[in-house]
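User: Predict the structure for this protein chain, please.
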Amino acid sequence: MPLDTITPFTPFASLAGGILIGLSAVFVMLLFGRIAGISGITTGALPAGRDDWIWRLAFILGLVAAPLLVVAVTGGPVTQTVPSNLVAMGIAGLLVGFGTITGSGCTSGHGVCGLARLSGRSLVAVLIFMAFAAGTVFVLRHLV
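Assistant: Here is the predicted structure, written as structure tokens:
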């Protein structure tokens, strides 16, 4: 495998990102009494007539604005780390959407918040997520 396809190890950036994700989960729970699961936040933002759609929309806009803030602060571009094949990305998005519906949540809801609450259901979901992620990486790196 060529070295340029390996994701570089970034311990400090990864630690900072993990801390920010954890803090956002804590603040969503403290301020709104809700789990900071992205799929639940997103689906709960629509339709806009719900009582709590404004904070959900603000959370989503924050996710979109974060890379723009990084560019503004660092002056450098945000590196794309996902494939540029739009068809594959569309299929992957549909599969992820199906998985979040089937699993009643996503990696942020189950992995960050559910495991922190010692949820057995979240543990099973995360084990399934990780098994499929490992299988996907193996297939893409060794069989395709």
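The chain has one domain: 3-143.
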